[in-house]
C-alpha cells in the first residue's frame, strides 16, 4: 500500500496552526426521481431485491436538457450563499463524468458562478474525488497561495451506466455538492485537521469506463467488479479512517460521526462493524440519492445537517474509496453552518 498523510499538528501541538476551514456547504439534485419500481421492470429484478442489497429506494437523474455543469454551478452558488460570500480565490472541481475531455470544466464553472479569473482546475479520482479536491484546496490555503477555495463535486453517472446491467444500473444517481474553504487555524471548528490519501493502480481494471482505443467510437459503459470492489472498499476506508483518527488523537469510541462514501448500505454497515462503531455514528444517506460518486459525501453532509444528525462540535471523519484504485479520509470538528440546497 502507498499512502500520503498530512497532519497539521492538531494532536501533538496544542498551539493553533494555519488551516483550511469549511465555512459553507451547498448541494444540488435533479428534480427527476427514478424509483426502484421503474428500473425493476426492465432489469428482471424487484424493488425488494434492490432495497435489500443496496439500501437504495430511489435516485435522482438529470433530464436531457441538463448537464453536469448545471448541477455543479447550482451547488457552487449554494455553497457561496451558505458561506455568506460571493467571492473566492480558486475553484477545484471533482468529477469523473465531464461533458468533454478538454478543456477542464472548472474555469467555466468559475465564470458561470461569477468568480471571474480565479485559479480553477479539475480533479478526477472517481468516488474519492471530493476528498482529493478538499485536501488539494486545503493545501493551497495552508501554503499561503490563496485565502479561499470553492470545492465542487458533481456527477452524472446515469449517462455512463449501462441501463441493461442490473449490477450497476440500480446503484447510481446524479447530483452535486460543494464546500467553501477559507484560511483559518486549527483551533476553529471546521478546520481540516488531518488527511490520508492512497492509491493502488494494480486494481485499475476493477472500476472503469473504457477508452476510445479499447472500444472505438461506440458507447463506453461504466463497469465494476462488484465483489472485489466491496472487499477493497471496506479494507481501504477502515485503514484510512483509522490513520486519520490516530493523527487527530481520537479513537472510535470518541468519534462523533463517520461520513463514508455512499456506495451501498452493505459496505457502510460492514465498515461500521470493522471500526466498532454503532449505526447511529455512521452516516447512511443513500436511500433517496443512490451512489453519486464524488458528490456523495457533501450530499450526505447536507442531509445530516438538515435533520440534525450532524451537530456542531462533532468529531467527524470523512472517508471514501473509488476507482484508480484510490482512497482518502479527512478529520475535522464539524462547524456551525446552514447548508443551502436546491433542485434543477
TrEMBL record:
> What does UniProt list as catalytic?
127, 261, 291
Q: Which family does it belong to?
A: Belongs to the thiolase-like superfamily. FabH family.
**What UniProt keywords are attached to this protein's entry?**
Acyltransferase, Cytoplasm, Fatty acid biosynthesis, Fatty acid metabolism, Lipid biosynthesis, Lipid metabolism, Multifunctional enzyme, Transferase
Q: What EC number is given for this enzyme?
A: 2.3.1.180
Protein location: Cytoplasm
Q: How does it assemble?
A: Homodimer.
**Pfam families with a match to the protein in the record:** ACP_syn_III, ACP_syn_III_C
**Protein's name according to its UniProt entry:** Beta-ketoacyl-[acyl-carrier-protein] synthase III
Protein purpose: Catalyzes the condensation reaction of fatty acid synthesis by the addition to an acyl acceptor of two carbons from malonyl-ACP. Catalyzes the first condensation reaction which initiates fatty acid synthesis and may therefore play a role in governing the total rate of fatty acid production. Possesses both acetoacetyl-ACP synthase and acetyl transacylase activities. Its substrate specificity determines the biosynthesis of branched-chain and/or straight-chain of fatty acids.
Query: According to its UniProt record, in which pathway does this protein act?
Result: Lipid metabolism; fatty acid biosynthesis
Q: Which organism is it from?
A: Streptomyces indiaensis
Q: Region ACP-binding: list its residue ranges.
A: 262-266
Amino acid at each position: 500500500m502507498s499512502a500520503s498523510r498530512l497532519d497539521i499538528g492538531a494532536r501533538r501541538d496544542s498551539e493553533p496552526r494555519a488551516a483550511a476551514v469549511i465555512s459553507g456547504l451547498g448541494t444540488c439534485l435533479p428534480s427527476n426521481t427514478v424509483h426502484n419500481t421503474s428500473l425493476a421492470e426492465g432489469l428482471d429484478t424487484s424493488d425488494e431485491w434492490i432495497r435489500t442489497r443496496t439500501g437504495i429506494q430511489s435516485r435522482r437523474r438529470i433530464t436531457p436538457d441538463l448537464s453536469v455543469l448545471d448541477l455543479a454551478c447550482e451547488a457552487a452558488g449554494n455553497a457561496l450563499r451558505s458561506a455568506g460570500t460571493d467571492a473566492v480565490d480558486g475553484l477545484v472541481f471533482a468529477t469523473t463524468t465531464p461533458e468533454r475531455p478538454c478543456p477542464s470544466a472548472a474555469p467555466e464553472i468559475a465564470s458561470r458562478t461569477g468568480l471571474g479569473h480565479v485559479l480553477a482546475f479539475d480533479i478526477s479520482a472517481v468516488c474519492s474525488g471530493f476528498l482529493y479536491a478538499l485536501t488539494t484546496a486545503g493545501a493551497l490555503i495552508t501554503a499561503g497561495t490563496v485565502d479561499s477555495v470553492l470545492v465542487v463535486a458533481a456527477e452524472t453517472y446515469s449517462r455512463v451506466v449501462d441501463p441493461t446491467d442490473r449490477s450497476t444500473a440500480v446503484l447510481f444517481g446524479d447530483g452535486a455538492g460543494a464546500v467553501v474553504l477559507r484560511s483559518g487555524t486549527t483551533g476553529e471548528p471546521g478546520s481540516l485537521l488531518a488527511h490520508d490519501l492512497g492509491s493502488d493502480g494494480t486494481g485499475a481494471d476493477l472500476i472503469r469506463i473504457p477508452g476510445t482505443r479499447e472500444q472505438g467510437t461506440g458507447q463506453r459503459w461504466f463497469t465494476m467488479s462488484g465483489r472485489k470492489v466491496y472487499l477493497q472498499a471496506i479494507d481501504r476506508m477502515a485503514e484510512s479512517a483509522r490513520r486519520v483518527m490516530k493523527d487527530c488523537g481520537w479513537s472510535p469510541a470518541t468519534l462523533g460521526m463517520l461520513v463514508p462514501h455512499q456506495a451501498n448500505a452493505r459496505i457502510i454497515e460492514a465498515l461500521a462493524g470493522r471500526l466498532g462503531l454503532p449505526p447511529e455514528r455512521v452516516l447512511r444517506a443513500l436511500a433517496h440519492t443512490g451512489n453519486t460518486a464524488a458528490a456523495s459525501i457533501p450530499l450526505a453532509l447536507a442531509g445530516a445537517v438538515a435533520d440534525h444528525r450532524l451537530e456542531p462540535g462533532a468529531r467527524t471523519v470523512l472517508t471514501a474509496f473509488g476507482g484508480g484504485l484510490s482512497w482518502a479520509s479527512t478529520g475535522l470538528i464539524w462547524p456551525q453552518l446552514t447548508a443551502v440546497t436546491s433542485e434543477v
